Amino acid sequence: NPDTVGREETSSRRSLTTPVSMEEIIETISRTLHIPKEQVTDKKGYRNLALALIRRSTGFTNKEIGRFVGGLTYSAVTKAYQRFEESLKTDKHLRDIMTRLERQMSQFKG
């Protein structure tokens, strides 16, 4: 059953991740990039960066992430994440920002 597999996969992913809140991730992005927290989840701001970092660093589902970053559907989160990952392949500046943020996030893991 595809629904069961998805739930098992999500619960496995959730159990393997450190309990970092989405708010902590937004605060980390805000502090690291010196921008207001509101701009992090703004459509024209760093929303795709935020959702990618949340998705990589937590076990939250796309539906939960979408709700948190401004009411996106789970499928919109999936598409935005895919576009963001594609951008990372060609945009060195974006890769550098992501690396810096992931380094900051690793400090939460102790």
How are the SSEs ordered, and which strands pair?
Blueprint: H1 2-16, H2 22-33, H3 37-40, H4 47-57, H5 62-68, H6 74-90, H7 92-106
Number of helices: 7
Low-confidence stretches: 1-5
User: Could you tell me the strand content as a percent range?
Assistant: under 5%
Kindly state the number of beta strands. 0
Shape: globular
Helix content: over 70%
Largest sheet: none
- Output the helix-strand order: HHHHHHH
Structural class: mainly alpha
Structure description:
The chain has 110 residues and is mainly α. It has helices at 2-16, 22-33, 37-40, 47-57, 62-68, 74-90, 92-106. Helix 2 (22-33) crosses helix 7 (92-106) and helix 5 packs across helix 6 (74-90). The protein is globular, with a radius of gyration of 14 Å. Mean pLDDT is 85; it is low at 1-5.
TL;DR?
The chain contains seven helices and no strands.
Salient structural properties:
110 residues; mainly alpha; disordered N terminus
